[in-house]
Amino acid sequence: METHFESNPLIDRLPKHLKQFIKPQDYEDYTPINQAVWRYVMRKNVDYLSKVAHESYLEGLQKTGLEIENIPNMYGMNRILKEIGWAAVAVDGFIPPNAFMEFQAYNVLVIASDIRQLEHIEYTPAPDIIHEGAGHAPIIANPEYAEYLRRFGEIGCKAISSSHDYEMYEAIRLLSILKEAEGTPENEIKAAEDQVEYLQNNMGELSEMARIRNLHWWTVEYGLIGTVDNPKIYGAGLLSSIGESAWCMTDNVEKLSYNISAADKSFDITKPQPQLYVTPDFAHLSSVLEEFANTMALRTGGLSSVKKLIDSQSLGTIELSTGLQISGVFTNVIEHDGEPVYVQTTGKTALSYREKELVGHGTEYHAEGFGSPIGMLKGINLTIEDMSPRDLRAYDIFEGEKVILEFEGDIIVSGIIVTGTRNLKGEILLIKLKDCTVTHKGNMLFQPEWGVYDMAIGKEVIAAFSGPADVNSFDMITHVPSSTTIKPKVSVEKQELEILYKSVRNLREGKKATTTLKEAFGAVSANHKKDWLLSVEIAELAKKTNDTDLLNKVVNHLAAVKLARPEASLLIDNGLELILETATA
After folding, report:
1. Mean pLDDT of the region 560-579
2. Per the entry, which co-factors are needed (predicted)?
3. Cα-to-chain-centroid distance, residue 279
């Protein structure tokens, strides 16, 4: 069944394997309490962040059309984001890191459309519309930062993962869902926390994906900008957390100058960060990103890049010096003098050139895998790719000829050449042989009864990266998360409270309400003694209408709530302070 969602041209051009993560934003699912949570966070954030956030934040709120009073509608966001060259899509919680970054490469902002529960109003480990919409969206209105984000996605989605990375993704996704869900038993949360901690302590050598995710965390999510002594906030995790945005500006959090060493500093998503990194400007972010990219298999190639793909146990691509790209699950490499001399995939494989699959070399043809020698012929200084037609004839590399090719590293290919495939420059990409055997020190790598042999041409591996060269070569619409977001339960008591929130919202907006302000306060103070946010909203309206008697009653009631719920004390104080500040402004 096809998913329907609000689109714009940037979303339309997304490949199908990314569209599988998009879900509709069911705006009607947002309850009056959800709207009150959004409003409280946004009012507090705008008030506080105007003092400590990078100037682009407040400017971006206006440019991206985010309202303080209402949870953003994706329809409206997409119309406005289009003007700054971006788009937004709704997803269900965490999606795999490669996919998340690839969305960024297409200038598409991924927004988890659920919203945190009132109990987690200060901070939630689960991505939600406050984090994504109020955190990420405004700052991308800064063109220099937006280009950094796009470039980060372009590079990050090519990072090679380890087999541990996906386990970590699934563990963090489950933990975030359980912690955000209402009424999750403590033992389930503890078990999920223990699993995350265990994986964090047993990741082994960090993969490219793990390291670039660290850079993403310390910049895009939790970055500071300016000087170590006087930083401003630009990271979305801080911009969307009313608790941590204040905490991070204290001396309790160590401030470090941002550099590439941040790639090796792992993070704990479940706890406030003990240290943060400060970049002098957005240009420095791009400089560090390029420095990191220069260490990736994407740019270094060679034996280590092939080994990274083998360790990942996932679909990846190597590119040879001729431009031939081999995409599949790499399972073996034979090395000689520190260089790969033979590579092997297992299962469906595709061959491409410049990100386009070569005709006749898709996964149906290479359904069982692909193996080929790489490198120089033994005793010959001239590589096959550099040979002229005369050179090829001299070495019997010619159609219809029986040939024996001995590569460095003792890889021997023997067979009759059928034909060759060349690139646009006329360089040979592939040689097709029949009656072919391929051996390595006597071990059989290919034998004639297996069919026609396609030998890749390339003197070296110049790049390796995650995913296929041509996204259309493979069926990548296969993502099924092991955990799904848990919707909050709706009790009779909760329904009554939602009705009260709706009435107060209607009164504030001048609409018809089912109760008066005094009646709403009487009901919430008598029947919902743990709730504090509605009383704060009532106090705001009482102040606005100069109802001193009601205001005093609400303030006294909130004082009692603070004694009963000390964890909500600061939130209540912040809400009341905002009312008084607004009233005197």
Report:
1. 92
2. Fe(2+)
3. 21
